[in-house]
Design goal:
The chain is α/β, with parallel strands linked by helices. It is 41% helix and 24% strand. The radius of gyration is 27 Å and the shape is elongated.
Length: 294
């Protein structure tokens, strides 16, 4: 059994005939026919039904064809990985980071890897909410660092750190002037400042957003913080982004009846499952794991 024979079998299924498969693979029709007969003899199975004008796979042929696709995909992955390893390093590496993630420790790891591989160009893409994971899933990024809101079986990931998101507002936020504990219904009439998700994948429900409330959309977390500091609305932010403002009393945590004001979240490093990686990406992954103690 050879990879060529498996490719021919798959191509016959895709094109619907031995002739079309031969033309697609730039082989002669007799070459493809002989190769498939040899594969049938080796396996002791009839893979093609030759009773009709257009060749089609038998049930056994369809089952073998399905496995053949997996084998061919793995073979292509090996060739791609070999190409990465043969170069010694990747010419560039794309890293998508959700903009609210703590950057200081992330940059320390990037600094170490950049010194080891100065010939690799690092492309850092700042995204919001689920945008970094969206970049990763589409293949625009090799590694993503993002808050983790739901499991994804197509990604491999580990926890880099834990963070807490707090619902906060300025002490001058009008509803706070008359009460310490706010009613959920009152907030429906107030402005909730929301960072726009840079993901292109539509989602039925926005994370942490009161659908009935008035919303101001902003493009980044820092603009959101400035609006909150001005007393013009309320919203959730990661604690590390507002540590100074909480300490100085410029922002205060909100208590809201029937609403979860504090949420503990994981920030994870992720990559696509089954995708070959080069030595630079492998070292970056390893160093982030070391940082996390994973």
């Amino acid at each position: 059994m050879t990879l060529d024979q498996l490719r021919m079998l798959v191509k016959i299924e895709e094109t619907g005939s031995v002739l079309a498969a031969a033309e697609s693979l730039r082989r002669t029709q007799p070459t493809v026919s002989v190769a498939i007969r040899k594969l049938e003899d080796e396996l002791g199975l009839q893979l093609l039904s030759r009773e009709q004008y257009r060749a089609r796979l038998t049930p056994a042929g369809e089952a073998i064809g399905k496995k053949a696709r997996e084998v061919l995909r793995l073979a292509d992955d090996i060739v791609l990985l070999a190409g990465h390893l043969a170069t010694g390093y990747e010419p560039e590496l794309n890293i998508a980071i959700e903009a609210s993630c703590p950057m200081s420790c992330i940059l320390e790891v990037l600094k170490m890897v950049e010194r080891q591989y100065p010939q690799t160009r690092f492309n850092i893409m700042a995204e919001n909410i689920l945008g970094a994971l969206d970049r990763l899933k589409k293949g625009d990024a090799d590694i993503a660092i993002s808050p983790w809101f739901e499991e994804d079986t197509g990604l491999e990931s580990f926890v880099l750190m834990h963070e807490r998101m707090l619902a906060v507002a300025s002490p001058q936020f009008p509803p706070l002037l008359g009460a310490k504990v706010l009613d959920y219904d009152i907030l429906k009439g107030e402005v909730q400042v929301v960072v726009k998700d840079s993901s292109t994948r539509p989602r039925e429900k926005k994370i942490g957003v009161i659908e009935e409330a008035r919303h101001w959309l902003v493009n980044d977390h820092f603009t959101k913080k400035e609006i909150l500091l001005a007393g013009m609305g309320w919203g959730r932010l990661q604690r590390h982004l507002i540590a100074d403002e909480l300490r100085d009393g410029k922002l205060v945590p909100l208590e809201i009846r029937n609403y979860q004001t504090a949420i503990d979240i994981e920030i994870r490093v992720a990559r696509r499952l089954g995708t070959p990686i080069g030595p630079v990406a492998a070292d970056l992954w390893r160093d982030f794991r070391n940082l996390a103690g994973a």
